[in-house]
Amino acid sequence: MDDGALLLPHGSSDVVDGAVDYAGRPASRSATGRWISAVFIIWVEIGERFTYYGVANNLISYLTGPLRESTATAAAAVNVWSGVASMLPLLGAFVADSYFGRYWTIVGASLLYMSGLSLMTLSSLHSSPCGETATTDPADCAQAGQVASFYASLYLMALAQGCHKPSVQAFGADQFDDGHPAERAAKSSFFNWWFFGLSAGILVANLLLTYIQDYVSWALGFGIPCLAMTAALLLFLLGTKTYRLYPVRTESSTNCPSDGRRGDLKRLLPLVPIWATLLPYAVVFCQSPTLFTKQGASLDRRLGPNFELPAASLQVCSSVAIITFVAVYDRLLVPLARRLTKRPSGITMLQRIGAGMFISLVSIVVSALVEMKRLEVARESDSMSVWWLVPQYALFGVSDVFTMIGLQEFFYDQVPEAYRSLGLGLYLSIFGVGELLSGGLVSAIDKISKMGGGDSWFADDINRGHFDYFYWLLAVLSAVGLALFLCFAKAYVYKKIDNPN
C-alpha cells in the first residue's frame, strides 16, 4: 500500500476530475486520496465492524439467556433483525447519493450508532428478575421495559449500520480514480485490504467481547462497542483534510436530468439476475452467528481445567481464515493469475464470486456431516470436541474472501458513478433478504416439523432436533443458486470504463 506506486504519468493533470477537497477546492491528486486517505477509512471500518459484530455475533446468547427466548424464536429474531439491518443500506445509500453526500452520512450514522449502543448498555443493566431459570413465558423473566428498550436499541443500531456501511465503503473506493491506471489497479487491492480490515475488527470482537459478555458483564460487553464507535468517528474526522469528496449530483447539475437518471437506473437492471442468484449463499451466510453458535454450545469447549471457550468465539476461526487468505490471495494468487490471464485483477469479478459460492456449498455440506456425527455421539451419551466445527468455519471464511470481496467490487464498479453507494446498498441487501428468508424458513420448518407432536428441527435441546436436515436443505438451495449464477454470469456484459488517460 505504497503511495509511491501511484506516480502520475508525464504531463497528466494534478487535479482529480469531479472531486473536491474539504474546503471545496478542486482535489489535488498528489495531496488527496489514495492510500493515505484509504488507511483512515479502513481503520474506521475496523472500529465499525468490531462494534456491529460485538453485538450481532453473541446476540442469540443474550436472547436465549437474560431475555429467556426459545432457540427457534431467538434464531428467527436474529435473522429478522440482521435482515432489516442489511436491507437498510438501500435507504442509507439513497440518502448519501441524493442528499447529504457520503462524508456527512458517515458522520450522522456514527452518532446514531453511539445513541443505540448507549441505550443498549443501559437496557442490559436491568437484570432479569429470575436470572437464568427457565420459563415458558419470556415476559415472566424479562421486564417489558427492558425488552422494549433492548429491541429499540437494536433497530436504532440497524438504522445506523444501514447508513454507515454503504457510505463508508463507497467513500473509501472514491479515494482512487478510475481514470488513472495506477489508481484503478490500486482500487482492486483496496477491496482486498478493506475486507482484511473488517475481518480483523470481527476477529477482535469474537476474541474479546464474547468472553466479556458471557463471563463478565453484558453491560460492559455492550459498552465497549459504544466507546469503539466513538473512537472510530474521531479517527474519521482526523483524516478530513486528506479526503476526496464528490458533490451530490442534483437534477439541476445535469443537462437532461430526468432522462439521465432514468438511463442510469436502467443500467442497474442487468445486475438483478446476479443479485437474485446470490440469495441461497446469503441464507447460508447467516447460519454462522445463529445455528453454528448453538452447535458449538453443545460441544466440549474446555481448554484446560479452568477455562471454557465461549460458543460465539468459535467465529474467530472464520476471521482467522479470512485474514490469512486475503493476504495469500492478494500477494500470491492475484500476481499468478495476472500472468496467466493478463487481467489487472487476475480473474474477473464474477469468476471470483462463483468460486466463493462453490466453497460456501462445500462448507454447508461439511456442516451437515459434522452435525450428523454430533447427533450420533450425543445418542451414545458421549461428548464431542468443539474442534470438529473448525473446518466449516474455515471454509465459510475462505468463501467470504472470494464472494464477499467480489460482490463489493462488482456492485461498486458496475453501477453508474452517481449511484455507487446505492450499488453497495444493493450488494448488502442480498444479505438482508437472505436473513429474512432464513428467518422465514426457520419459523416455517419449526411449525411444520412439530406437527403430530414430533420434535422441531430447532428444538431447544438440539440433541432432539435436526440441524443436519436444515443444512442439507440449504446445500440443495445453494447448488441450484450456483447453477443459475453460472448461466447468468456467462451471459453478463461488463460495463466499459471510460479512461481519459
TrEMBL record:
Recorded coiled-coil stretches: none
Pfam families found in the cross-reference section: PTR2
Membrane topology type: Multi-pass membrane protein
Keyword set, alphabetical order: Membrane, Phosphoprotein, Transmembrane, Transmembrane helix
Source taxon at top rank: Eukaryota
PROSITE patterns registered for this protein in UniProt: PTR2_1
Protease as UniProt keyword: no
Protein name in UniProt: Uncharacterized protein
Origin organism lineage: Eukaryota, Viridiplantae, Streptophyta, Embryophyta, Tracheophyta
